[in-house]
Structure formats: C-alpha cells, structure tokens
Amino acid sequence: MTEHASVRYLVDDVQAAIGFYTGHLGFTLNTSAAPAFADVVRGPLRLLLSGPASSGARATPSGLGGGGNRIHLEVTDLDAEITRLRESGLSFAGEVVSGPGGRQILLTDPAGNFVELFQPAAR
C-alpha cells in the first residue's frame, strides 16, 4: 500500500476540479463519487476534492475563508510551466515572486483554491 499525505480542498464543481488537476498538473484520478467527492494523486500527495454535498464540506462552518493555505508543487522550469498553463487558458493570482529559496507563482483551481508552483534556487 502506498503512503500518501492527504489534503482536502473544498470545491464548487468536483468534475471541473478533476479536469484541472489531472489535465494540467499531472495528477491521476484515484476514486470518484462525483458530484460529491473525488481524490486525485500525484506522487505522495492525495488531494481530496470535496463538493458541496460531501461530508467534508458539511463539517466546515460557513463563512470561514481559505486564508493563504495552498498546496506546493515543485517544478524544474517555472517559466516553461507558466507558459504551458497560460497556453491552456489558465490564469495566475499575481506575478512570479523571487526569494532566497527560489521562485514561485500562485495558480487558482476552478474553486479558487491556491496552488503554488515553486522552482528552488540553484544550489
């Protein structure tokens, strides 16, 4: 059995979220009970996509924002990824930010959840 770290994202449209993560970010569909729930996997990350009818969505009090939480995906060529995703019609929340650890940009999924694409600094 493969060990996964699981993260739950609340989404408005499970099918759109499946398409986003599998079509653009290299995840594979593990299970689906759309429109309520699905989970997608990339390496050791299992992303739980919970629609409005899922138990995960009902357990969250209304009115709470997502804050700055996001999943963090490491890439080898950030500029190439940005170009590829823009050519697919996706947009970003802001511009590339550079720091001592590397460069990053935020992408949003169809429900507005953040995905950080990160390229580490050369060592």
TrEMBL record:
One Pfam family here: Glyoxalase
Residues annotated as domain VOC: 3-120
InterPro entries per UniProt: Anthracycline_SecMetBiosynth, Glyas_Bleomycin-R_OHBP_Dase, Glyas_Fos-R_dOase_dom, VOC_core
SUPFAM superfamilies: Glyoxalase/Bleomycin resistance protein/Dihydroxybiphenyl dioxygenase (SSF54593)
Coiled coil: none
Protein name (record): Glyoxalase
Organism: Amycolatopsis deserti
